[in-house]
Amino acid sequence: MEMLSSYLIAINVIGAVLVLVNKRVHSYARKSQIEFLFCIASLLGGSLGVLLSILLFDRKTYKENMMSRVWIVCIFVIQAILFLMLQGYRTDTVRFDFWTFFAEHQMFAIYIVLLNSITFAVFAIDKVRARKGKARIRIVVLLGLAFAGGSIGGLLAMYLFRHKTQQNYFTAGIPLMMVTQLVVVFYMMNAKW
């Protein structure tokens, strides 16, 4: 266990340093080169270091780095849940009965339905605004709603209205958010509360 702790500390420091290097050489190197490296570092267990470094030193988001931000946040959530499960914060038996879980936690089910409905409506409003040439809803708002639990509504609206289907941070990011949300619900079902 001590070796795992040393590894996690080292990979998180490496991830944090890569974000700082990316910020420093931003104008000299292709943006995707170093961002790819800290996405790999986050996948290897360094998502906390990468995320903290981004939050402290490189909060500016633009279209070119949006997918890496979505990736890092989703990987961080999944890794945090895996860490909690490995530390023993889970039940002895594993549950897969999602319908029973939502029936037992009706307020959570209502939250999910409402948030997906709101996300669907916000995507639709943004599509209408885009057609009319009016002020658009910020990408961060659309992705934030999807990340908070409205990924199904966002995905449905994307393909129903053919909206945001050309940007990878939506076409790949929202399905990644769906996987992350599935992992979160699975952990909620199997956590010791």
Structural write-up:
The protein is mainly α and 193 residues long. The chain has helices at 2-24, 31-57, 66-86, 98-104, 106-132, 139-160, 168-171, 173-190. α5 packs across α6. The protein is flat and about 55 Å long. It starts with a helix and ends with a helix.
Summarize the topology.
Layout (H helix, E strand, L loop, with lengths): L1 H23 L6 H27 L8 H21 L11 H7 L1 H27 L6 H22 L7 H4 L1 H18 L3
Helix pairs in contact: 1-2, 2-3, 3-8, 5-6, 6-8
Order of helices and strands: HHHHHHHH
Query: Treating each run of at least 4 consecutive H or I residues as one helix, how many helices?
Result: 8
Distance between the termini: 25 Å
> What gross morphology would you assign?
flat
- What percentage of residues falls in helices of 4 or more residues? over 70%
| Biggest β-sheet description | none
Q: Please state roughly what percent of the residues sit in beta strands, choosing from under 5%, 5-15%, 15-25%, 25-35%, 35-45% or over 45%.
A: under 5%
What ranges have pLDDT less than 50 throughout 5 or more consecutive residues?
A: none
Mean pLDDT: 90
